[in-house]
Design brief:
GO terms for molecular function: ABC-type oligopeptide transporter activity; ATP binding; ATP hydrolysis activity. By secondary structure, this protein is of the alpha/beta class. The chain is built from 18 helices and 12 strands. It has a 6-stranded mixed β-sheet, sandwiched between helices. It has a 4-stranded antiparallel β-sheet with strand order 2-1-4-5, covered by helices on one side. Strands 7-8 form a two-stranded antiparallel ribbon. The structure holds adenosine-5'-triphosphate (ATP). The site of adenosine-5'-triphosphate has 12 residues, from helix 9. Adenosine-5'-triphosphate binds next to helix 9.
Length: about 575
Amino acid sequence: MKKYIKKYYKLFLLSIFFVTLEALIDLIQPGITSNIIDKGIAQNDINYILKEGSKMFIITVFGAIFALTRNIISTNVSQRFAYDLRNDLFTKINTYSFKTIEKFNKASLITRLTNDVTQLQNFVHGMMRVFIKSPILCIGSLIMAIRLNLKMSIVLVVMIIGVFIVISTNLKIGYPLFKKVQKNIDNLNSKIREYLGAVRVVKTFNRYEYEVDKFEHTNEELYNTSTKAMRVMSVFSPFITFIVNMSIVLVLYLGNIPTFDIKIGVIVAYINYMTRILTSLIMISHIFNVFVRAKTSYERVNEVLKEDGDIKENLKNIDRIDSIEFEDIDFSYNKDNENTVLKNINLKISKGQTIGIIGSTGSGKTSIINLIPKFYKIDRGTLKINGIDINKISDKSLRKSVAIVPQKNTLFTGSIADNIRWGSEKATYHEVKQCAQIAEAEEFINSFRDTYSTHIGQGGVNVSGGQKQRISISRALIKRPSLLILDDATSALDAGTEANIKNNLSKYIKDLTCIIIAQRISSVIDCDNIYVLEEGEIVGQGKHDELMKSCKEYKDIFKSQVNRSLGDEE
Ligand SMILES: Nc1ncnc2c1ncn2[C@@H]1O[C@H](COP(=O)(O)OP(=O)(O)OP(=O)(O)O)[C@@H](O)[C@H]1O
């Protein structure tokens, strides 16, 4: 936050300067009223009334000018502050590892970037308006009232103590409640995100009502906590009004007692000051409400800003990935969790090789390849790229050299050409076409009326699973990576198309190293080396023929797939 203070403190102070002038003008007015009553009206001095009246008018005009100037500055500063903060948070989130994003939860990050920033923006705006004006007005009115009549000040002291107790209780009760409200907003966002992401599944399973119920439940929780918080907070304002009104009654009563010797104009001014104290105290209690929310938001935003990013300085850049070496690697997603996903992994891949990784579902295949672009940190062991410890290589250069076609591929809204070019903005139309040819995508793209300009709906809704996979492969190829990772990326393709793609690949990129993760043995059968994974451990490695002799698990997978295909034929 220091950064923003440094950037905006001059404008902030200027706004405070104008708001102080505004408050001073408010403070002068009851004094003038008192003089008009006691000196002008009481003595029937019309000149005095006109003179003081004009003074009051000029002061009011100046007050309006100060208020307008302050308003322009405060709106400008708070908007710019929120703009900067949102940008900084987004940039920071971009540096996060997957693990950190998972730790925060995506929905919570969205709430922090939107709702929490708005709370802080409201607070900053308020600071430059009422937050400073109210205390000045409150203390100033107090001083002016004491100056008018010292004896009656005892009423003010009692009033201030009472109000202070109410405000501090308000703060104590409100803070945990607003924290809960923010958490419930996170949950609601999370539910919406999940629903929208799985809308097809929900509709296929006819689980619409179940999802609506789930949403209603979360929505109700938010409703309940917000209402409770608002209700609790709203109890305090009438209390403050009550205390101040009782004090005004007391002033009127004391004004009637001869020993206090108070003129009517002074009583009017005194009550005027007390009303100002009342308004400013109500504003102060409102400030505390905003402060309580802003404090929660500040902590949540700060957590995001303080979290260590992934990008480290002074790391080595590499031009390409030639060799990969896993040495005794252990890995788990959650450090507190005993569940080690990868155990003692030793694996070696040389330049230009095609490596297969096969194993049952959940055996850790994706987890292995997630370590290569440094998506997650390794718990134990060393991962070397070109003989250099991966921790000493810059993320950017590493990720530039590798292209991954993930199991769950994502297409963006836009044309097919845009989607392929997403892998390399500067790619020419010819390159886009060439990559589509290699990925065996050109035929189906040409069958569309608009060919490469065909519009893809959000998430690739209007293309089939196999077409989506081939567009994703084209997108990866256009990067011209030195390492290509296909994570179950051809599962929706027939064996012939898959074989053609593999043939085309080696012609397109010289010395391309390729890792193929697959469930089907036919996808990895020709690989230079195949690793067999079982419950996070490598239980066999070698070429297909070697594994058929040496690895029971591989043989079992082979047999089950052969039996299945024979069964299919029958
Ligand atoms: N982001 C994550 N957070 C926590 N655990 C995870 C995460 N991703 C995977 N896991 C766990 O790690 C283990 C290995 O998962 P992984 O995705 O690597 O398996 P896989 O062999 O690729 O499976 P599949 O063939 O089904 O894709 C599983 O037990 C899974 O539950």
